[in-house]
Amino acid sequence: MTKITINPVTRIEGHAQVTIAVNPAGEVEDAHFNVVELRGFEKFLIGAEVEEAPRITPRICGICPSAHHLAAAKATDQIFGAELPKTGRNLRELLNLGQFIHSHALHFFMLAAPDFLLGHDAPAEERNVLGLARRSPEIAKKAIAVRKFGQRLTEAVGGKPIHPGNALPGGMSAPLSEGRRTELLGMAEETLRNAQEGWEIAKGFLDDMDTSIGEVQTAFLGIADQGTYATYHGEVQVMDSTGNIVGGFTGQDYTDHIEEYSEDWSYLKFARLKTGDYYRVGPLARLNIVQSMGTGGADAALAEYRQAFGKNVQGALPYNIARYIEFLASCEKAVEMLSDSGITGSDIRTPVTGVVHRRGVGIVEAPRGTLIHDYTVNEGGFIERCNLIVATCQNNYAMDRGVFDMARRVVQDGQLSSSAANRIEMVIRAYDPCISCATHAIGRMPIDIEVIRQCR
Ligand code: MG
Ligand code: NI
């Protein structure tokens, strides 16, 4: 058996590997997306006070800490039996918007755009954010400015730009001052202008995007609020592969619909529907599920997206466009929320006393998809059992099969060229996998691609 290793695979968050098996005729027999690291937050949260979970779990990931913070806080609301007051709820939603703006801008401009703007076959040393800055300095500058707003919003509402800590059982620990609100509103308006200009670039990718690449027929999962796009409030919708909403859940009942499983070649868990169907989460799933984005510019963009790709999009690369539309929607929503001076209200928390329910399940949309935090506590409020389901696990099957599809297209006579390797990476990158979330990994950024040639 001959092994060809391509290293590194770049522009994803975390460490993973691709293995391609080639038969003696040089044809691809199978390919897998493997994640080979494990840290185990689900185990070492056991014994912690549950009110500490919103502060511990953001450490799972430096890219999507707010989502873990909010999912954990939502679970503790249930455990302590607290209904949030209006401003507390709104601040939680605003914090999630900061996360989406920061994470989506990072992915679109810095990780995905080099492929589309510089070309898939550009030399690897140019096909990155620095190459992008040389080619299109104005885009790079805008990318840095919009990310900065996302971080600033997270800091103002969450207390810190990375690993926010202000959400706690029953609400938030600090209100937003009027001075902060007006400062953030100015930044939000500028960010929205940049996002609108960027849509002109993003939609340029609509025309020649091959949606058959990495296509898998799956069901989809994502939060919607009465059919409207939402990331914090609302009900998780289950959509089957033909585009029909077939169920929904908001909390503990998630186990009626989905289950996790493992494969022996990856430490990254998988998830599927209880019906046995595979499903996906994240921007593509959410846009398939909603009827409206809830804001004008994003709704117009959604109409153009559906004109190009249809209503039930099953490809992999359209994730990149869906992600941009969500970025636009998040900017519009941030302007809307910050324009309302009610966001500075003092009704931020319902005081809590003791454990009311022994189990709490917090579900929010993270930039990469539906995030579930499930805690069971003892009567003293110490965690006895913990299950986290992150987006990357739920997209694991689709990434794996997408890699197989692309490998079949680009591996020639058992040989993998540099541009072919990048095309395989592009399928994975479209999902924006968060490997540190998914396995709670410590380690290097690159992923390896390995070709295993089977001998007769
Ligand atoms: Mg789990
Ligand atoms: Ni993450």
From TrEMBL:
Any one Pfam family match given in the protein's UniProt record, by short name: NiFeSe_Hases
Reported EC number(s) for this entry are 1.12.1.2
Cofactor field: Ni(2+)
Per UniProt, which keywords does this protein have?
Answer: Homeobox, Metal-binding, Nickel, Oxidoreductase
**Record's InterPro entries?**
Ni-dep_hyd_lsu, Ni-dep_hyd_lsu_Ni_BS, NiFe-Hase_large
Return the PROSITE patterns for the record.
Answer: NI_HGENASE_L_1, NI_HGENASE_L_2
Keyword Oxidoreductase in record: yes
Gene3D superfamilies the UniProt entry points to:
Cytochrome-c3 Hydrogenase, chain B
Q: Any transmembrane segments, and where? A: none
Task: List the molecular function annotations (GO) for this entry.
Answer: DNA binding; ferredoxin hydrogenase activity; hydrogen dehydrogenase activity; nickel cation binding
Q: What protein family is recorded?
A: Belongs to the [NiFe]/[NiFeSe] hydrogenase large subunit family.
Protein name as catalogued: Nad-reducing hydrogenase subunit hoxh
Species per Swiss-Prot/TrEMBL record: hydrocarbon metagenome
